[in-house]
Amino acid sequence: MKPARTAGSVLVAGMLTLTAACGGSEAGSPDTSGSESGTTTLSMAETPGAPFGFVSYGVERGHFADEGIDLQLTVNPGGGTSTVPALLQGDFDVMGLDLVSALTTIEAGLPLRMVSAGSATSDEAEGDFSAVLVPADSPIQGPADYDGVRMGVNALLNVNELYIQNTLEAQGMPESAISPVELPFPDILGAIARGDVDAGIVIEPFATIGQSQGMRVVDRPWHAIKPGLQIGTMVMTEQKVAEDPDVAERFARAVQATADDVRSDPAAFRAALPDLIEIDPALAEQMNLIQWRGASDRESIELTGQLMTEYGLIDAEIDYDEVIVD
């Protein structure tokens, strides 16, 4: 087992302090029970790029309104566990997280519940939405060349860490071989171009944008862990779910309806993306689409927990029955 990076304990300690300051389970959203019309207003922060586009599409297509939810969606400027305090403080009712960040937070004793699935990898590597990009003239051809690499990541100790640890183990490299550098997704491409990092892990549409700028894909990082692996989850606080389990169920149904909509008509989703996340229509046609299933994939969540325990990212696996709502 490889030792966990020390930043993890700092983040978790900070979140535990916040929870104590907020009174533990008292931390939660203000009353969003809704208006006389029966509509419930929920605020949500989601990862920039295609994940934000997916939820926005569900709003645009009326899937959340059909469930009596007025979803106020915001781009989450950060990533990983560093964004969780905003949920605990009640700044948001729902948050999109990667599974590693969610499991890290829950294992630390913080009251999150998984109410729906987020993104998932493709079954085929070439069609996946994640990519490790390098400059066109880089000597890096694949994971075997990562020794001594500075790797741009959108957040430390999230799903990127799972890929890094998995790669180090597979390649027989020391912990120091890959140095992650935390940058927002939109900034990773510039850092690669300037030489500030040697490689970067990005998602769509940044993967296709980078390739259009001459960068090369040397791995499909999250697909490399397991084809079809669930990567993202949508979480609420335990208090929010307990206070209004019906709204959690309605939110999950809206996500499921959106996922079914995208799978049944991906062309319509691509056509909507330029307005949803402000990208060129040609880019929307070229980029690989994230896979969305709607309901949580228990097998993926348990595998992620097992690997995190093996790599020392958490001390023990969580009670999956307790935290997976849908």
Topology (SSEs and partners):
Blueprint: H1 7-21, E1 40-46, H2 50-60, H3 63-66, E2 69-75, H4 84-88, E3 94-98, H5 99-107, E4 112-117, E5 119-120, E6 130-134, E7 149-153, H6 159-171, E8 178-182, H7 185-194, E9 199-203, H8 206-212, E10 216-219, H9 221-225, E11 232-237, H10 238-243, H11 245-264, H12 266-277, H13 281-286, E12 291-292, H14 298-310, H15 320-323
Parallel strand pairs: 1-2, 1-3, 7-8, 7-9
Antiparallel strand pairs: 3-11, 4-11, 5-12, 6-9, 6-10
Helix pairs in contact: 2-11, 2-12, 11-12
Write a structural description.
Helices cover 43% and strands 18% of the residues. It has two domains: 7-120 and 230-299 and 312-323, 3-Layer(aba) Sandwich (D-Maltodextrin-Binding Protein, domain 2); 125-225, D-Maltodextrin-Binding Protein, domain 2 (3-Layer(aba) Sandwich), CATH 3.40.190. It has 326 residues and is an alpha/beta fold. Residues 1-10 and 16-33 have low confidence and may be disordered. The chain is built from 15 helices and twelve strands. The strands form three sheets. The protein has a five-stranded mixed β-sheet with strand order 2-1-3-11-4. Strands 8-7-9-6-10 form a five-stranded mixed β-sheet, sandwiched between helices. Strands 5-12 form a two-stranded antiparallel ribbon.
- What is the gyration radius calculated from CA atoms? 19 Å
Distance between the termini: 31 Å
Shape: globular
Structural class: alpha/beta
Approximately how much helix is present in the residues?
40-55%
Share of residues in strands: 15-25%
Number of helices, where a helix is a run of at least 4 consecutive DSSP H or I residues: 15
- Using the coordinates shown, work out and report the CATH topology of the largest domain: D-Maltodextrin-Binding Protein, domain 2
What's the architecture of the largest domain, going by CATH? 3-Layer(aba) Sandwich
Instruction: Give the low-pLDDT segments.
Output: 1-10, 16-33
- Describe the main β-sheet briefly: 5 strands, mixed
The total count of strands amounts to 12
What is the residue-averaged pLDDT? 89
**Assigned CATH superfamily of the largest domain:** Periplasmic binding protein-like II
Largest beta sheet: strand ordering: 2-1-3-11-4
CATH domain class name of the largest domain:
Alpha Beta
Number of individual domains: 2
Order of helices and strands: HEHHEHEHEEEEHEHEHEHEHHHHEHH
